[in-house]
Protein: Potassium-transporting ATPase potassium-binding subunit
Organism: Streptomonospora mangrovi
Amino acid sequence: MSGAAWSQFAALIALLLLTAPPLGRYLAAVYGDAGRAPGDRVFLPVERAVYRLCRVDAGREQRWTGYALSLLAFSLVSFLLLYALLRLQGVLPLNPVGLPGVAPNVAFNAAVSFVTNTNWQSYGGEYTMSHLSQMAGLTVQNFVSAAAGMAVMAALVRGLARRRAATVGNFWVDLTRGTVRVLLPLSFALAVVLAGQGVVQNLSGHTAAATLEGARQLIPGGPAAGQVAIKQLGTNGGGFFDMNSAHPFENPTPLSNLVENWAILVIPFALAFAYGHLVGDRRQGRAVFAVMAVVWAGMSVAAMALETAGNPRLDALGVDQAAGYLEGKETRFGAAASGLWAASTTGTSNGSVNAMHDSLTPMGGGTALIHMMLGEVSPGGAGVGLNGLLVMAVLAVFVAGLMVGRTPEYLGKKIQAAEMKLVVLYLLAMPTVLLGFAAASSVLDTALASRSAEGPHGLTEILYAYASAANNNGSAFAGLDSTTYWYTTTLGLAMLVGRFLLIIPVLAIAGSLARKQPAPATAGTLPTHTLLFGGLLIGVVVVVAGLTFLPALALGPIVEHLSL
């Protein structure tokens, strides 16, 4: 890789190291049990107004079952309202282009997608959604779906930190505080920065312009900057425009590209530091951060190197690839920045793209696919990434306990049969729908007809789609036509499983651990803040994913790479 590529990588790392720790301290204050946090004078009146309006008793905490039911009820109502808005947008205001209501199957898929924080888009943004649908529907879900994920994280951490407690917090309070105190202020500031860089922010429809050749061109407008800000910060990823962050109206400059890439990563990394503060041991937070950072950095360097190295077949033809492999990439960013973004967006549940992933090199696209298959724990989505890594930590201490013949413990809490059953349910849910639906799509003629290529690349397109849906990512190998009833339905079901059949076991683990009394550390206790445990945790993450997905990967991106 070139010096410029390494400089981009170093600049992003520096920004994260400067901003993630202080943001983590702030997040710990927001979700902590102290009840006080910076900005109370501004935010408390807003929160109290929300509680009064929604008749929420902010002082009453919930058991994990009540917390889960509140989350499910909120998500169901959000889905129904969003679905209705999309179907009726043709007769609603703020529709300057006169777009019709969204088709039933696409509306179902989009509503599920945004409620689950996936933001998979089986439609072209500016050609399908009115300004009202974008602002009152999709953008609102960008905020609350991310806040819901962070709320579940807060409940899990309380379960680890509390002693003999029956409750894990109040979902409605956590949802409100995450939205009002974290996502709204950060998004407002980022939207101003992006608008300053040239990201569109208006209520215009299409502006007609004449090209130099005399043709008529329609230039889209709309409130993009506000949605782009929260789509990155909330690890949502759904683009206002069809081309997502490859579109110059969403991501016009190299500086906006760096800032948006930072925004994708900063909250998930900051939550690792918040975790250390919340459990009263900052070493735990630093250990989790280190594991996240090592995996993300490794995948980033791999993706950047693969895309800058180019295609060996083109080398054999004498094609100059000094700038890297540029098919499907924006020249204002280049191959290295496209690879770095691909690693960041698939290591989180973001899914936004600044290049077309279907045009990445076989192992460049394979790296993005593998990163999702790791469970998006490096650093993962807003809240859910930390949840996933902590579940893996529980599995790691269980494996360590088996090796030395001790009852496994994590933060002093004994890990017993009840917790391990929930961990197994968590680990099986995502692969089951990913491989199950991918297998079905590989033999059904109607599903196979949606591929843009046959052979290994066609299989990779299918695998990538279900990996993205089941991990609530949302990025795509866009050569696959996902607008058919088969794909809109099965991808929607995969999103629901990937969201709720992971969140519910996490909350159950939180409730189980909260009831336990921590045991005092002894000479035989496995420290979970050390380099040794960090290596074990990375090994568990890699081995679980490898044993589950390596056969499918061997038939897709690996064999395609070997055929070059």
About this structure: The chain has 19 helices and four strands. The longest strand covers residues 207-210. The mean pLDDT is 95. Residues 531-562 form the longest helix (32 residues).
